[in-house]
Fold:
Amino acid sequence: MRTLRPTALLLASASIASCGGAEPAVTSAPPARSAVATAPAAPTEAPKPPKPPKPVADPCALPTAPIEELTTAEGATVFTTDGAYLVWSDGNAVVRAAMNGGDRKTLVADVTKQAVVRGLALSQGEVWFRAEERYDQGCAGLLGFVGQNGGPVTSVTPEGCISGFALTPDRVVFTREESVPTQSGISSGLYAAPRKGGPGKTLLRPFSGGNRVTTDGEFVYFQGGYDMLHRVPLGGGDGQAVSDGKIGDAFGGYDGRRFTLAGNDIFALHGHPNLGGMKIARLTKDGKDAQLLGPAVPAHPSGATLPAGPLVTDAQFVYWASPLRGAVLRVPRNGACAPYEIATGREKPDWVAVAGSYVYWMELDAKPPRIARRKLYEDPEPAIVPAATTALPTGAPTPPPAPPAPTLAAPERPFVLAGEFAEPTTVSFAGGKVFVLLQDDGPKPRNEEDAPAPYWIHVLELRGTKFQPIKKHRVEGHLVAERVTEKNGKLYLVVRNPDARGEAHYYEPLGPGKQLAGYDNEWEDPTGPNMPPSCEAAPPPATKLAPMRDLYGWPRLDDARFFIGTSCDGKPKIQVLAQDKSQMIAIEPSDELMHAQLGILWKGAAGVSLFEKGAFRRIAANLPKDTWDVLRAPDGTIVARGRENFALRGEAWAPWQLAVGSARFTVVSDGAALWAYAGESSIGITELHRYAPGGANNAAPIDMSTARLPKGR
Structure:
């Protein structure tokens, strides 16, 4: 291993001006304390980080636990966790929260006016933060910490561009950029200082490069030039080149911001982010046995596929994010298999962290950003109960015990529907009958430019064992045919206007009779007689509804009405009018109402609650990503359907599938059985399968003939 003196990495150009002039003075007395303090220390005992889990038997197997979305983090750009607290920053403030998103505290309101928070760490009851910001003539920033329960802010470094830091039980090691960029590179210094104050030490200054830095307690590892990792003793001494040159057949060098230590090994991204993509490499800490483990992030012209957060490790794996791919990946530390994705379809994931049995990440493109996790190990850990940020109505029943797993029999022989111009849309139940809606995909008449063209909906009814067409209905292009329903003993096709706020429906009779007006008069102005009055109304109208403003939804279920918006005090609220009484519920700005087969769901920071018997009752910690609908199977199981289907077990979701001939299917329930239908639009066929609990009744023959739809107009 080549040995380097501290001066061996001097830049070629002697004309580079230091941002801070001479070598900065490393703290030699107790660090200066800022007056910024936003929360006093809490007297209650703080939660402890989870214990390390036991290894998994097959490191190449995909995790099976569902992804949990823990909480939102408005404006967040940086995140970390130790399994006891969640910590994030929007670049200015540093916020700490319990693992369920509750007990939120702003620990630091504004770290510094001149720089942006770009790194966080949790250690020994302290929240550490690194800030930097580059300008035309230099770079500003600082490194400091605050207690995890609040208190004074301590700055441990001189002002400057802190590009990386690492913690030991008693020291902090950091790199500080000390010159503006030139053709020769960037000059940096490597320093170590006691965490609680005392004499500091310059380990190496200046050297070319300097981004991430890490330590194993004996050596400090850092990037010192193109494709070169170096280390220097933590107590001071000569620097050593760990890696010198390319590894394997990868094009490019190490990425200095994304490498980590694990046991006796170094893991680093290697390659070129905008030409060949980056691979993950492994070599021992003394620079031996270098090898490539597999692809890590794909190439992109701008290099934007690289995560902002670091590589992280636990006892078995190395983890990182691929933001543009929407994926979180891992690779076994022993190289048992190539890297593979453990979370996909996420909204720009980054800032991966591991703690206990879970991997965590932040989704930066979610609105607002959110924190999610996935369980990787089977060790039991207490379930996270999302924070109740609002008081639910009293008297709500406690959640029932988790229902048993579904015992649905194999499906009955499928009903088959076909039509030369037909595409399947939905199945609905009304008046004890089964209906299918098929959208005619035939030629559409000319229409105004950019105006949606009208289309035809065919309504088919299951009569005996055969579907028969009973109605052909013309629907305007901006409307959606939703279902068949029964009102006052008559059947109607329900058509919805998706562009209207709330739930604007109207009813088209399937037999003789007049069209019914949309319920709640929702075609009227939001200040109509069936809506909450304006906060400025004088005198206030006679109504049981409290005044509200800025409404953005008002679904209805049976005789209960719901409104979500802002109350007259400027706070977000849900107003419920049920059993002739109105109640206001305080919510977070990101909370939503969802009208599902199951009923009205309130999705918020306090979890997912279902409106039943005049009150909201919490049923789940969250909803799986991309949930389209929620329903209750005949055996009591609550099912969330979307790109993947999940069944509710307690307050968590487990993967759930039916043995249908397609991976993609839609499920509805008539209360006695589940109906799953899968369509193939290229041949215009829908297969409709009926799943009955405990066994299917195959005594009656099922007609497999098709119901041909009328051709043309």
The two ends are 82 Å apart (CA to CA). The mean pLDDT is 74.
